[in-house]
Specification:
single chain; 154 residues; alpha+beta; GIY-YIG endonuclease; 18% strand; elongated
Length: 154
């Protein structure tokens, strides 16, 4: 029992250290525009964001959403691209790959996907923190949600 407790405490200290390091990295990170990662047809650019990590979307200076990506081949590149994409379901209904896009379309001032895309491009920017694994990304995502309290993570 003593060894198990020691191992648990040791892993907990490493986890706290990781959170502290990644939050500090986030605080030092630069803001990016979506145009750095999305082409004119609203598709993710090739060769960018091909890693696990966390992203924070800002409307002006206010954080509105924190997300993570990196499970399998679904890197940040694809997750950022999901913000701009839709699909047609088997029943013919239009669907959206990203939770944030679905939430924004429920607002009165966003009637179409084009409105949401324009909002992302003209009013939003993002910050990114790279992680080694999706598990790390999820931990950092949860920590940043708790710290920043973004209005669209509920």
């Amino acid at each position: 029992m003593g060894l198990e407790r020691f191992m648990c405490n040791s892993k907990l200290r490493l986890l706290f250290k990781l959170i502290e390091e990644k939050v500090e990295e986030f605080q030092r990170s630069e803001f990016h525009s979506f145009r750095e990662f999305i082409d004119e047809r609203y598709r993710p650019k090739k060769g960018v964001l091909q890693f696990c990590g966390v992203y924070v979307i800002y409307e002006g200076d206010k954080p509105i959403y924190v997300g993570s990506a990196g499970k399998g081949r679904h890197t940040l590149r694809y997750r950022i691209g999901d913000l701009f994409s839709d699909y047609q379901s088997k029943t013919g209904e239009r669907g959206y790959y990203h939770t944030l896009t679905r939430k924004l379309l429920k607002r009165k001032n966003f009637n179409r996907l084009e409105d949401v895309r324009n909002f992302y491009i003209t009013k939003c920017r993002l910050r990114i923190v790279k992680t080694d694994t999706i598990r790390q990304a999820r931990v950092i995502e949860a920590a940043l949600i708790e710290i920043l309290n973004p209005c669209l993570n509920d």
